[in-house]
Fold this sequence. Notes:
Blueprint: H1 2-12, E1 20-24, E2 36-42, E3 60-66, E4 69-75, H2 80-83, H3 90-99, E5 103-112, E6 122-129, H4 155-168, E7 172-179, H5 188-196, E8 201-203, H6 207-215, E9 219-229, H7 240-264
Parallel strand pairs: 1-4, 1-5, 5-9, 6-7, 7-8
Antiparallel strand pairs: 2-3, 3-4, 5-8, 6-9
Helix pairs in contact: 1-3, 4-7
The structure holds hypoxanthine (HPA).
Amino acid sequence: MTQNALNTIRARAPGTRPRVAVILGSGWGGLTQHIANPVRIPYAELEGFPQATVEGHTGELCLGRIGQQEVAVMSGRKHGYETGAVDGMKVPLQVLKALGCAVLVQTNAAGSLREQMLPGSLMLLSDHINFSQRSPLVGESGSARFVSMVNAYDAELRAHAKQAAQQRGITLHEGVYAWFFGPQFETPAEIRMSIQLGADAVGMSTVPETIYARYLQMRVLAFSLITNMAAGLSNEQLSHTHTLSQAEAAGEMASGFLAEVVRSLQLLPS
Ligand code: HPA
């Protein structure tokens, strides 16, 4: 599967050698507008890529450049809650790695657990809590599967992101992302528990990809776009429609910032 998808990509975008891969979650789709000379390949043409089913995720791989940075950008991901399986992004990540990507930048929409982190703001992930207790590494053999999750969200890349935010005058919160499996939203009791246990935001994605990317020895950077206060922390009604409308409202700021982070990543030694 991986080889077939690779062959398709190399045929459609000859000579492509991206160093940075990006996965776009809800609200972050505007990043693709910052890509020069894009080659767009629908997931339907890529064996082993997810056939996206979630509203707000288009299902397309886009190759091109942001500034001088060659990138491979995935619009849409497979979520565990779609089928129960958490290995839906394994083949795409293997393909991105084989294309030459050393860095994976992840994005998502998330609920806030902190009073001062309001909808429309951005959070840099410093770490995560795998409340779902699921792993895409189940079934792998050998000692490589025992992956260290210390510094899973690369400290040097985080420092770079903070600097980019400062230069743009953007407030970038930093905190711990808790992965709930979904698709239902959390209960207020689960949110109170998460706050007590040290989480700052909640969402239904990202963590399996981080685990698998670390297994592949890619460096990971991840951002949440806060779309709502988590369950029980405000009077707003939680729904996917609400998530998408909030994500859209802040989307341009988020994707402009992301484009700048990706573009200037090339200043870092590889
Ligand atoms: N919970 C889980 N996932 C989410 C939320 C939330 O409150 N907001 C956006 N994605």
